[in-house]
Write a structure and sequence with these properties.
33% of the residues lie in helices and 31% in strands. The protein contains nine helices and 14 strands.
Length: 249
């Protein structure tokens, strides 16, 4: 069952009251399995940086937004099939994805990082990990990178990053490659006793952006305007500081 959050911006409610008109209604997809960016709590509710950013940009757009959780492997296909209007799920912009969908300006940037068990003899994040078993989330930037650069390694792909991390914790893989910030979150919390990050992968800094269908250029520009506003007035920094004690923009 999909997890859903509904909210209406104060602006949208005022407009609806004054003019008796319907506010814009948008459905936004996130993954719900990528803490601290998007995750489901014990009450089955979506939370995280992506969710907070979505709520704020919808408020600025005067839109009534419904946020739904969608498995990562099918998230782009769902957008193209018009199951929802946009994706706010820490999606990294790359050329392959740009052939299918369009992206807003970035709302944060991240490199790829490498995690290993604390007692591992692997120390170089720039290694090709020949003869090692590397875990990564499938259909994600990290798996694409691993497939291109770790041809001498045994690559194992998992539906979620949590599953890849669990395999590392249980020593069924030697290495996990992932976006830095969720990997850092895991190493500092759940994985603090087992694992460590040995460094970032050179040349992998990339933009995380909101995704929309190619034909929805007007919606993309509305998102861009709202993102610019929350960065300019300090709201973005306020949201970010709930999750990070460093700049991710």
């Amino acid at each position: 069952m999909k997890h859903v959050i509904r909210f209406a911006s104060a602006c949208a409610m005022v407009v609806a009251f004054a003019s008796n008109a319907q506010a814009d209604k948008l459905t936004i997809a996130t993954e719900g399995a990528y803490p601290p960016f998007n995750y489901v709590d014990s009450d089955n509710k979506l939370h995280g940086f992506d969710v907070d950013i979505t709520e704020e940009v919808c408020k600025r757009m005067g839109a009534e937004c419904t946020i739904v959780a969608q498995d990562w492997d099918g998230i782009i296909a769902g957008l193209m099939a018009k199951k929802y209007d946009a994706i706010v799920a820490s999606m990294i912009v790359n050329e392959e994805r740009k052939k299918k969908i369009a992206f807003t300006n970035h709302y944060y940037r991240t490199p790829l990082s490498i995690a290993v068990p604390k007692d591992s003899d692997i120390t170089d994040a720039q290694s090709d990990f020949a003869g090692k078993t590397v875990g990564a989330q499938s259909a994600a930037t990290q798996s694409i990178y691993a497939e291109e650069h770790y041809k001498k390694a045994d690559l194992k792909l998992y539906p979620t990053l949590d599953e890849a991390n669990s395999e590392l914790e249980n020593e069924r893989v030697d290495v996990v490659i992932a976006d830095k910030f969720p990997l850092l979150e895991w190493v500092n919390k759940t994985g603090k006793d087992c694992c460590k990050i040995i460094g970032d992968v050179n040349g992998t800094m990339a933009d995380a952006s909101i995704a929309v269908r190619k034909e929805d250029n007007a919606l993309r520009e509305r998102f861009n305007k709202a993102l610019d506003e929350i960065v300019a007035d300090g709201t973005y920094k306020k949201i970010s500081s709930k999750y990070f004690d460093f700049d991710i923009y």
